[in-house]
Write a structure and sequence with these properties.
Layout: E1 17-18, E2 21-22, H1 24-30, E3 41-43, H2 46-54, E4 59-61, H3 67-81, E5 87-90, H4 100-111, E6 121-127, E7 134-143, H5 147-151, H6 160-165, E8 170-174, H7 187-200
Parallel strand pairs: 3-4, 6-8
Antiparallel strand pairs: 1-2, 5-7, 6-7
């Protein structure tokens, strides 16, 4: 998902420098796994589209305003590629510390639900730094039973509507490090995440 307006960031954050390359590249690298049947970037930015084209990553350029539009367009594009999708992951493009192994763990957990797959929802979580509480975030994986709801979300709303409607179905997959859930909302945060990535040797 790369359709955000980045108002807090002040410019298109996905084009900002992260380790000498556009931030978007981290999301492309994390999703470059055979565990995924297909992937598509959904964006309002022609520059993001050009970067994706250069990397041979499918990208859908659009001009619709709502988060619901991003979800619907992305899901429909995936279903065109793979009509029999068992589930769909929504992954923001601004979580540069997310690891491919973590994404694959999410997919593995989903695959192990067997008969319950259609009604399964998995989301990434982490233990809070100052206690036993769980911090939840993205990405989120929805079983195909939720596709109709995701394609008809209320105006301006995202997948959280479905999460709130079915809390009993949501299961947490824990990231190894809670920093994987952090997103780059401001240039200052991106700088902090870049420093952490350097310590982790994330490239």
């Amino acid at each position: 998902m790369a359709s955000g307006l980045a108002r807090r960031f002040g410019s298109n954050k996905l084009l900002a420098d992260f380790g000498g390359r556009p931030l978007l590249f981290r999301a492309l690298e994390v999703t470059a796994t055979p565990a995924l049947a297909a992937r598509v970037v959904v964006t309002r930015s022609a520059k993001v589209k050009a970067l994706c084209d250069a990397q041979a990553v499918p990208c859908l350029l659009h001009s619709l305003p709502g988060r619901n539009d991003t979800v619907r367009l992305g899901l429909e594009a995936l279903l065109e590629q793979c009509p029999n999708l068992a589930g769909c992951i929504f992954l923001p493009g601004d979580q540069p510390l997310l690891q491919r192994e973590t994404l694959e763990a999410l997919i593995t957990a989903f695959a192990q639900t067997q008969k319950e797959t259609e009604r399964a929802i998995f989301r990434l979580g982490a233990r809070a730094a100052d206690g036993p509480d769980t911090v939840v975030g993205s990405p989120v994986l929805f079983g195909c039973g939720y596709f109709p709801a995701l394609r008809t979300l209320p105006e301006g709303k995202g997948g959280s509507v479905v999460l709130k409607a079915h809390p009993e179905q949501v299961q947490i997959v824990y990231a190894q490090r809670r920093e994987e859930l952090l997103d780059a909302d401001t240039p200052e945060v991106l700088e902090e995440l870049s420093a952490i990535a350097a310590q982790w040797c994330v490239t």
